[in-house]
Amino acid sequence: MILIIGGSYQGKLDYARQRFGLADDEIQVCDETTMALDFSRRCIACIDRFALNRIRSGFDPVEAFGTDPGLYRDVIFIANDVSGGVVPMDPVLRAWREACGRMNMKLASQADEVWRLFCGIPQRIK
Amino acid sequence: MSTYISGGCKNGKSFYAQRVAKAGGSPLYYIATMIPSDDEDLARIRRHREERAGWGFETLECGRDILSCLDSADPSGAFLLDSVTALLSNEMFAPGGVDMDAPERIAGALETFVDRAPNTVLVSDYIFSDAMLYDELTEAYRRGLALIDRRLAARCDNVIEVVAGQFIVHKGALPV
Question: What is the interface pTM, i.e. ipTM, of the complex?
Fold first, then answer.
């Protein structure tokens, strides 16, 4: 399993596409409607967006990963790093930011590789 | 040698960029990108001028149309452009209305600038890691700045992230 993290628009998905030759239908790009992760895809992008949807519905996004990391051991996860701003005034965004931190920590600890993208440039941080 | 510098606010980007530019040769140019709109801006410009005093910079005022400042400068000199962020907001949010083509145009202009004036240091701002849901316009601005960042990072010899006055080299090496 691989985790690719970085700020918005830093080229995370481009990097994954280029390195792994991903076809569009092999990627689940989470949007404002995504309530479940599809571990049968090779790549799941914008997991932070999925986390926000779960938080808004009153669920902890980290629970969606279950207790068996084997279920997603071949998945490339892509996460927007939302940890670098002022504490949000909105309690939902506050809970979201906190949940993203826990989710990223969990995935990074289980990942074989963690990459951070900065201005389109990948850096391996695990 | 061209260098692209980014990082969070008040981490020491501008000070380091001045050192890199000064080591880049002469004449030494500072491209002032801020177009003042109020007293706060004027005070900030005064403060920046005082900080630069004694460094030997010649100031080129250029808040828009960045290639135009090469008309009155020696392209073999060293240039400091601080900042890409201000340049984008000047052109994207001009008095005439919002210009959504500004990011693409500025990315192209800056690529040409670096080709013509290879001893250029560019300073940008890393505004991409907060837990906020922005309105569409702000989001377009962030997307636009990141587009310029990626394009210029690909073009420049060095890409440096500044954190608390420390440096992370993402490409090339530390010039000074």
Answer: 0.80
